[in-house]
Amino acid sequence: MIDRRDLLRALAAAGVGAALPRLALAQGAPLLTRPIPSSGEQVPVVGLGSWITFNVGNDPVARDACADVMRAFFAGGGRMIDSSPMYGSSQDVIGYGLAKLGAADKVFSAEKVWTRSAGARQIEESRTKWRVPRFDLMQVHNLLSWEAHLPLLLDMKAKGRVRYVGITTSEGRRHDEFERIMRAHPLDFIQVTYNAVERDNEKRLLPLARERGIAVIVNRPFREGPLVRAAKRRALPAWAAEIDCTNWAQVLLKFIVSHPAVTCAIPATTRADHVGENIGASYGRLPDEAMRKRIVAQVETF
Fold this sequence. Notes:
Order of helices and strands: HHEEHEHEHEHEHEHEHHEHH
Radius of gyration: 18 Å
CATH topology: TIM Barrel
CATH architecture: Alpha-Beta Barrel
CATH class: Alpha Beta
CATH superfamily: NADP-dependent oxidoreductase domain
Distance between the termini: 38 Å
Strand content: 5-15%
């Protein structure tokens, strides 16, 4: 477990400590984690996405800014970083950041295969870009050619070349097929969209994940930004202190990770100070069902 004194020192050095719920930390609140059902391994409830935000090409200033985001993320106790071949230069930028920070041993690497053929070759190309010995999690991105890729991933897991296997979707696509795959195959993870506005997955996929013992990664927690921007135009309610939140990003993330099926949410950002806001949702009290309903009611007024 990360020591809170070391955490505060690291966050101060990263320039993001002020965004964390300091009272919760001062009282010894632990880093919030969830178990991966298939193994029991614990992962922090807030991860880091890279869609759009890390697609900065070869711009050295922008690459260093992304490395600063990663530094703040690791300083706050974060582990899971998620990417895809679909995300432009994001894989290269993650690899650059891991090398610059010497952090390859800190990351829980979540990657995807996204191609109609030659999945093994693409996975190896992705691994080379990340500069890691193997991926922790390999997912079939948006079910593209899953019939070919899923057996490959399961074979790679059996041989120790990846640790976990999963499938992904976003924005409610192909949920009938997604559900059939969840029921028929030994998945470790699924990745879906879920937030205080988009809650359809509460009805089918999240309960099924609990039933089947499948970990859940949540993408688009802020609807790619508009949700948190709308929230920040409103004053933070006094009741946010009841769940140790100092900003709206934490409220929105704690709504997600308080769902009993959710393992980790992966907000993406270009700013280290926003990482500080997000990672704060990994500490302190989580909303109960009454508070979750209060959050939904508040968001519906935006």
